[in-house]
Each structure stands twice: as structure tokens, then as C-alpha cells.
Amino acid sequence: MKDLKAYFFPRHYPALRDILILVILFGGAFFLFLGNAGLIEPDEGRYAEIPREMLERGDFVTPMLNYVAYFEKPPLHYWLNALSFELFGLNEFAARFAGALAGLLTVLLVYHTGRKLFGRREGLFSAFILGTSTGFIAQSRINLTDMTLTLCLSAALCCFIIAADDQERHKGRYYYALYLFSALAVLAKGLVGLLFPAGIIVIYLATTRRWHLLKEMRLPGGSALFLAVAAPWFVLVSARNPSFACFFFIHEHLERFLTTVHDRYQPFWFFIPILLLTMFPWSLYGVRAIARAWGERRSRNGERLLFLLVWAAFIFLFFSASHSKLIPYILPVFPPLALLTGKMFSDLMDGEEQQQAFGPEKALLGALLAVMAVLAIIYPHVRELAPVLTGSGLVRPGGSLVTKPPILSPLGGVVVACLTLSMAAAVWLAGRKRNLLILFAGLCLSSYFLETMGLQLFLEGIEFKKSSKELALLGRQATSHDGCLVSFGYEQSLPFYAGKRVVVVGGRGELEFGSRQGDQTAWFVEETDFLRLWQGERPVAALLKRADYERIAPRLVPAPSVLGTKGKKMLICNRSAAGGALPSGTQSAFVKRRSADEEGAAGDAR
């Protein structure tokens, strides 16, 4: 306990030492085992394939997916992934490196901002809270554009509120950084990179009546910097692709926000439980931090607290009002909430206020942790019965039931339960000792191990359901000699692992726009065209779901050879599988993922 106080409580500990400690501690959480799992469908495959094709074609202006134009996102994340591939090679670690690095840098940014605004201890607590928010870590380890946006957007807003301090000596640097990071946010995700900083800053200036800040914000020079960074790509891509502007600004912005065209509609309150779950275990204290900050909005630090509240509320309400909702959209809300919660914990450490931390949150958190531990133990066993209850299993002709492996194995459930109970023990011990530092340190430590160990246990089950790596590598080998690789519906990671373009049968999904640019008829076909292709002289391997296979197999001549199965997916070929050994380095990993039941199912299919 003395060592914890000696580290957390000094107000003038060197910043570089803190940053080094944070990098060492959270480097493991963000990067450990980063490349162990295959790319998860659909997002990771998409955001790995686009930069792979950029490198192959030498064109970093027009993003292409499966070799057709893809304009749903700007290119910053693709460029970062392409650089990562150049440094580390075409592998899963490289595909996820940029997102993980953005997550780690956001933790360091929160530390720097908290230290500048409130003090060293507040910054340190805020960084630890963000770095041990389970959902933040989990999403940073997935190849998503949203973490890149979160870093750029958070950097822009943090630079503004630091520069707005009357005592700040480097106002110019921070204001220009505001424009720079806003431009990068636009290149990361589009117009929200401009809308969010502008909207949040205007609301802050209006509520605090600090309009005089406009005079010191370097608007002319900053605007020029913003345009110099953000505009060139939009000009180049529009010049090369006349249809870009209409698709990107109308379809991907206005229609995405105002309509359900993307089939991602969720109710207005969707992000409330999502935020509570993804910011666990700090979400319960985050609710109190928000209420406390609102009550202190007229205090000495009130304007800074108000800015953080506006930041979190603006983004939260914006995406709640949108007709297109996905879980990662809420990521830019994490940094301001971490700063508010970190400041609250720091304030409560002083004097009699410490006792206020042991209110209803302690009892509720303890109860939730106990329930989570029980669920982690029983879920893998109950999950084995799920196909019987839901009819989602595959029934063989003999009547036996093939079950899908649970997302969490029985052993993994025990490990997760132990980690959860350790967190509950920290809550109980802190309440018994009435010591807030024990509570804070216990939650940090337990959540850290839950991130580094528990998430990997979940990932094994998720990979089985959502990754097609092994089947894609089999398809690559089967079609290596002038063969044709086919996907029933577009499988995002298939061209990445195969290193070649694939023929899409049926639904085009996100490739709908690109498939209509130029003559793509040979690459986007219907089932009747596929049947003719199957009967040709070229080797053809097709990735499809079991249901599609059972429906189409009787019409396939020659009879298909099943090269492999994984979950609901199968890889079939119009040539004999006799010589189809797995690619080097793939066989052991593939066999481990195939249960005895699945081997039997593949035999029945043959």
C-alpha cells in the first residue's frame, strides 16, 4: 500500500517516467498475442485487403476491395495498415497493429490531457481507467477504422481544451494541432472528423460565453493547415472517380445517418447498455462522475469539466439519433468519460470524501461480478445444449447432432470466473478496509488480467465462428495453377489470404457500388453462371455455407470434393482432393479447429 501511495500520490513526478511506465504496462494489453487469431469477418478482412491491394497496385488514392472501387471510408486507416504490412509483412499482427497503437496512444493522450487540465494524479488515474476498460482494449485489438478516428478526434479536442487555458504557454502549438488532428479525423472517417470538433467547440463557447477564444484560435492559419492536410486526397480521388462525391457524401453520410439503408437500425437507447458493458468495470463509477462533474460545472475547474461533458454527450446523442448504429461508433466517448472518472477518483482520495466511494456502486458492482463468475462457469456447458433448444445445429442423416463449439470453453470459463472473482475480492477488501486506493488498484489489476488473458479465451471461440483463414489458405492452394476461387456472398478475408481476386456469386453486399463501375460481369455472377464455371476445365474452389452447399450440391457436375469445413462454412472443389494437402504451416492449426463431429460431417457430405 505504501508503494502505491508513493507512486500515485506525488504531484510532481516526471511526466516521461509516467509515460514510460504506461507504455510498458499497457503495451502488453494492447499488443500481446495480437496476431494469434485469424482475421475476423467481416471488418478485419475488409480493412486488411484494401491496403494489400493498394500495395499490390501501387495506387494509394483509389481504395479498392476485391479489385473494385470501394468508397465507404477515407484512406487514413488503409494507409497506416499498408505501412504496417511493409514493416511486418502480410499477417494478422500487421493488420491489427495500427488500431492497437492508436489505442495505446489514446491512453497516453488521456494521461497528458488529465495532467495538463487537473494535475498529475488525475491524469494517471484517467489513463489507467481508459487502459483497463475492457471494451476499449478489445476493440483496439481489432482491425477497425473507429480506433484511428478515436485517436485523431480525441487529440483534436484535447488540444483545444488545453489551449483554451489562459495560463497555457504553448497556445499556438495546441491550436494548430487541433486543426491538424481534425483533418486526420476527416481522413479517418469522413465529415464527422470536422462536425464533431466544430459542434463540440461551438456548444462549449456558447455555454461558457468564451467567444473571445475565437480571436486566439488561429482561424486563418489553422483553416489553411486543415485544408492542406484533408483536401488533397478528396480532390485526387474525385478527379479519378467522378462517381465518388455522390456516393461518399450522400450515400455514406446523409443516407447512413437519416435512413436504414445500411440495415443497422437500433433503438435510440441502444448505446446505453453498450457503454455500460464496454466501459466495465468503470461504467458504474462513470455515472457518478458525470453527475459530479455537472454539479461542479461552476467550480474552479468547471469549464473544463463542462467541455468533457459536452464532448461525451454530443457524440453519444449524435450516434443515438442516427439510423445506423454499430458498437465501435461509441469509442470516441471513452476518453472524456475516463478523464471525468479519473478526476472523481482523485478527488475522493482526499480526506473524508473517500468514504463516498463505498456507496451503491460497490454493492452493485460486487453483485454483478458474482453473477458474471457464475455465468462464465455454466455458459460453456449450457451452450452445448443450445442447438437442441434452438435448432441451430447440423443434423446428420443418421440423426446425430453436430454442435458448434461454445465461444468460451469450460476451462476458459473457469479462468474467466477466477479473474472475475479476484475483482470481486478487491471490491470486498476495499470496502472492508474503507480504502479507495485498494479499490482502484484492485479493479485496475483484475481488469488488466481479464483483458490480457480472458479476452484471448473468448477470441478462440469467436475465431472459429468468424474467421475463414484455414479455408481461404486451402482455396489458395487448390486454385494456385490458373484456378478460380469463388465465394457465395462476399467473404471479406478470402482475397487477402488467397492473394487474388475472387468471383462473387449472388449477394454483393458492400461491393454493390464497385461492381457497377466498368465491366465486372465475369467477377459477379449468379448461380447459373457458377454452374457453367464449375463444369469448365479450370480448377474451381468455392467457399459457401452448409445450407447453400446442401441446396446446390445435387446440381454440381462433376460431384464436388469437400476440401474442408469450419463452423457453418465449407470449401468445395471441382477436382479430386486426393492431392490437396494443406499449405505448409497451416495443417496443424486447421486440424486443431476441426472437431471429430465436423470430420464426420465432411465425410457425410462427400
Automatic annotation (TrEMBL):
Transmembrane segments annotated in the record for this chain: 20-40, 93-111, 147-164, 176-205, 225-250, 270-291, 303-320, 326-342, 363-382, 407-429, 436-459
Keyword ATP-binding tagged: no
Domain of life according to the entry: Bacteria
GO biological process: lipopolysaccharide biosynthetic process; response to iron(III) ion
Keywords annotated in UniProt: Cell membrane, Glycosyltransferase, Membrane, Transferase, Transmembrane, Transmembrane helix
InterPro entries recorded: Arnt_C, LipidA_mod_glycosyltrf_83, RgtA/B/C-like
Annotated segments matching region Disordered: 581-606
Sequence ranges assigned to domain Aminoarabinose transferase C-terminal in this UniProt record: 482-572
Topology in the lipid bilayer: Multi-pass membrane protein
Localisation per UniProt entry: Cell membrane
GO CC annotations, alphabetized: plasma membrane
GO molecular function: pentosyltransferase activity
Pfam families: Arnt_C, PMT_2
Chain ranges of the Glycosyltransferase RgtA/B/C/D-like domain: 73-234
Protein's UniProt name: Glycosyltransferase family 39 protein
Species of the source: Oryzomonas japonica
